[in-house]
Specification:
Length: 317
Amino acid sequence: MAWKRPLHCCRSGKKLRHNGWVQLKEHEPLGPKTTMRIGGTARYFAELSTKKDAEEAWAFAQQNHLPLIVLGSGSNTIFADGEINALIARVSAQQVQRTNEQTNKRTTIAADAGKNLPMLVNELAKEGFDLSPLTGIPGTVGGAIFGNAGQGPSGIWMDHFVKSVTIYDGAWKSLNNEECGFRYRESAFKHWATTQSPMIWSAVLQIPTGDPKAIQMQIEHLLQRRIETQPHQRTAGSCFKAVGDTPAWKLIDAAGLRGVKKGGVTISEKHANFLIGEKGATFHDAIDIVNTVKEKIPEKLEVEMRFVKPDGSLAYE
Ligand SMILES: Cc1cc2nc3c(=O)[nH]c(=O)nc-3n(C[C@H](O)[C@H](O)[C@H](O)COP(=O)(O)OP(=O)(O)OC[C@H]3O[C@@H](n4cnc5c(N)ncnc54)[C@H](O)[C@@H]3O)c2cc1C
């Protein structure tokens, strides 16, 4: 494995602990790794391309008593300003394997967690495999599994396609769909018993088959709808979960909060559940606006976005 490097810090060049292989960077800027582009630096940052990388990153975080935060494309995450005292690890493995296994007009594929979801949707459409209900959701397969991404409370979510998920939490495990504890915008991974966040490494997906042209048309239709209803700016998607069947944007709109601004963060005029960060916006601005919305709306609003504090814990659990 000549291409691998010993576990070491990029800036100091010092070897860290055991003779491992994963490369760690120190004080790595996090803003550019998220779609809102807000946030400071990671005490340590690692790209995980192999299972061995995952094992070593986990061991490093444990030995150094650091929280381990797994990042996908950062399209639902916002980091605090300053330094996050944690190991932030991004799964960059992104292979997709076709198994050619067909059951009940469904085909089975295996995808690594780092695979970009919109790319997967498009690539599979050309082969007549229909993941179109997940059209237009930025991020990775891992992120979509973690948050059970989908199209609102009555829509189709990621769990509709998941047969099993391979994770690492100090040991490699395979969980079937039921064991993943999927619900609306929820999975068991959000509430894992260990202090370290489990790493979703890959998933086996079962995907309906169909006519490639019809699937492509449906994708274009859904993308068009998004262009009409969502802002194309620095955002992390929906900030709050729906309350029952009521979308959060309706409650925010009814409270007259559309367009409200705190520092560099605004509630989008186009979609009232989207926060928009302008250049120079801070974590504090985003927290300020979330707290304003929570105060002004009588319903108990749950925060969907992940607000990571300097100690690696979440601002809203
Ligand atoms: C314009 C826009 C539109 C959006 N529309 C939708 C929508 O329609 N429906 C929807 O559900 N979401 C939507 N989102 C939100 C976001 O795209 C999804 O939540 C997406 O699934 C997040 O994936 P990610 O890889 O970017 O995750 P990240 O933001 O990187 O991470 C999100 C959470 O998942 C965890 N995580 C990520 N990868 C892993 C892994 N491999 N192992 C363990 N934990 C992991 C992280 O720790 C974090 O807690 C939208 C976002 C934007 C910007």
